[in-house]
Every structure is written in structure tokens, then in C-alpha cells.
């Protein structure tokens, strides 16, 4: 059987992970797996059901009763929680604000990682998140750690909001991004950190096309080696 190929893309919020991961996966014919969407889905369900998000055990019990589906549709990916399309809803500020706390519990992470590894067991994947290269797929053939300055990342998020007709202050976006990064980097279980064998790529002044090109080049090099 042909060996499955794994591309792990990690990095802080709004560094461009999902945008480039999606395009790279499509070009390569691999499956794209957005692990952040899984943590966001659980956070959304916890908020909707009034689950105590400070209690990792309750969150794990909730997760055990929650079906999270990532479905490739056209150029994008839809996210379903228990059959309901939550693709847009899980990006709302209430979810963004609480997702780092929900993601910090070991019980929750163990179950998420088990689901993520199952998704990658039967096909070649591009998976993005925070702990993919360090923990979920430690043997990934290509590992990328995407970064960009926090100012640039706040501007990128602002442009997305603007397209949706919303005009939050760039400063509030910047603060929210910096706070989430801090929580993700400081948590005890699988914190956000560059894997030793990951290639760091600063995208601050790179276009999406340039980042994708670089990733595809790294994959090609590995496939030929
Ligand atoms: O797209 P954005 O960078 O805003 O975040 P995301 O990838 O959707 O991830 C949302 C949150 O989920 C992160 O801030 C982490 O707290 C958590 N997460 C995680 O802990 N581990 C992962 N593998 C992916 C996300
Ligand atoms: O997944 P992550 O939170 O790391 O980032 P994202 O959701 O892909 O958002 C990044 C935003 O920056 C998107 O609106 C992209 O169009 C834009 N962008 C990028 O991803 N990469 C660049 N090199 C330049 C802009």
C-alpha cells in the first residue's frame, strides 16, 4: 500500500493556517482537517447547553455525546455538530473567547487527539492546529510552523470582519488574538510550541500563494526523497 502522507501545520491564531492548509490539501488531493474547528465545536455546544466550561470532566462527558463532522464541500469545509451546520457560528466572538479554556483540559484533548488520529489513519492529510507536529502526528513528513506579526494578524482578521459588514476595532482584535495565543502557549497540556523538526515560516509579508508554494515545494522534496 502506498504510504500515507501527513502535513502538519501549526501556529498562532490568524497566521493563515487554515487558508493555506485548505489550498495545499486541494492541490495535493489530500484531506484537510481543521482541528481548531473541533475544539470550537465543543466550546459552542458547551455554551449552548450551559455546561460548566471550568470543569474538564463535564466537558469530556459532553464531548462523548457530541458528533463533530468535518465535511469537504466545494472549495470549503463545513462543520456539523450533531447534524447541524455550525460552520459560521463557531467563529463568533463568544466561542473564540472561551475556546482556549475548553482546549486546556487533558481529558478533552485526549479524546480530540484520538478522533484526529482516526481521521488521518486512512488517507493522506493536511492537518492544522496547535499541537499537530508535536503531538497528534509526530511522524508527519512535513511540519510547518506558521507565524506572522500580531499586528498583521489583527489586520487579516479585520479584513475578514469587514467583508461580513462588521467593523470591530483593530486594537480589540489584536488584544483578543494576543490573549488567546498566551493561553495556548502557557497551558500545561500540549501547549502551542514549534516542534523541533518543524520549519518556521514567517508569513507577515508573504502572499497566500507564496506560502502555499513553499509548502507544496516541501512536500514535493519529501515525496522525492
Ligand atoms: O483559526 P484560529 O487561529 O482563530 O483558531 P483555531 O485554529 O480555530 O483554534 C481555536 C482554538 O482551539 C485555539 O486558540 C486553541 O485554543 C484550540 N486548539 C487547540 O488547542 N489545539 C488544536 N490542535 C487546535 C486548536
Ligand atoms: O487558520 P488561521 O487562524 O491561522 O488563519 P486563517 O483563518 O487562515 O486566516 C488568515 C487570514 O489571513 C485569511 O483571511 C487569509 O486570507 C489572510 N492571509 C493569509 O492567510 N495568509 C497570507 N499570507 C496573507 C493573508
From TrEMBL:
Top-rank taxon: Bacteria
Residues the record lists as binding ATP: 11-19
Keyword Translocase recorded: no
Reaction catalysis annotation: CMP + ATP = CDP + ADP; dCMP + ATP = dCDP + ADP
Entry keywords, A to Z: ATP-binding, Cytoplasm, Kinase, Nucleotide-binding, Transferase
Enzyme class: transferase
Domain Cytidylate kinase positions: 7-220
InterPro entries for this protein: Cytidylate_kin, Cytidylate_kinase_dom, P-loop_NTPase
GO BP of this protein: nucleobase-containing small molecule interconversion; pyrimidine nucleotide metabolic process
SUPFAM superfamilies, A to Z: P-loop containing nucleoside triphosphate hydrolases
Predominant subcellular localization, coarse grouping: cytoplasm
A single cellular component GO annotation: cytosol
UniProt EC number: 2.7.4.25
One term of GO molecular function: ATP binding
Entry's localization field: Cytoplasm
Annotated family: Belongs to the cytidylate kinase family. Type 1 subfamily.
Protein name: Cytidylate kinase
Organism this protein belongs to: Sporolactobacillus laevolacticus DSM 442
Lineage start: Bacteria, Bacillati, Bacillota, Bacilli, Bacillales
Name of the gene: cmk
Amino acid at each position: 500500500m502506498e504510504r500515507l502522507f501527513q502535513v502538519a501545520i501549526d501556529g498562532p491564531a490568524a497566521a493563515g493556517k487554515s487558508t493555506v492548509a485548505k489550498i495545499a490539501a486541494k492541490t495535493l488531493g489530500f484531506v484537510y482537517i481543521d482541528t481548531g474547528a473541533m475544539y470550537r465545536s465543543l466550546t459552542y455546544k458547551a455554551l449552548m447547553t450551559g455546561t460548566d466550561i471550568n470543569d474538564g470532566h463535564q466537558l469530556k462527558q459532553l464531548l462523548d455525546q457530541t458528533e463533530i463532522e468535518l465535511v469537504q464541500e466545494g472549495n470549503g469545509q463545513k462543520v456539523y455538530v450533531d447534524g447541524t451546520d455550525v460552520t459560521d457560528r463557531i467563529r463568533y466572538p463568544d466561542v473564540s473567547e472561551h475556546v482556549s479554556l475548553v482546549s486546556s483540559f487533558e481529558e478533552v484533548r485526549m479524546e480530540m487527539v484520538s478522533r484526529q488520529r482516526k481521521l488521518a489513519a486512512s488517507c493522506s492529510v493536511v492537518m492544522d492546529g496547535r499541537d499537530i507536529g508535536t503531538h497528534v502526528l509526530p511522524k508527519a513528513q512535513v511540519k510547518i510552523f506558521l507565524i506572522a506579526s500580531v499586528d498583521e494578524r489583527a489586520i487579516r482578521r479585520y479584513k475578514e470582519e469587514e467583508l461580513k459588514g462588521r467593523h470591530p476595532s483593530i486594537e480589540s482584535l489584536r488584544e483578543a488574538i494576543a490573549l488567546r495565543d498566551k493561553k495556548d502557549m502557557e497551558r500545561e497540556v500540549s501547549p502551542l510550541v514549534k516542534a523541533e523538526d518543524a520549519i518556521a515560516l514567517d508569513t507577515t509579508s508573504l502572499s497566500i500563494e507564496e506560502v502555499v508554494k513553499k509548502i507544496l515545494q516541501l512536500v514535493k522534496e519529501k515525496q522525492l526523497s
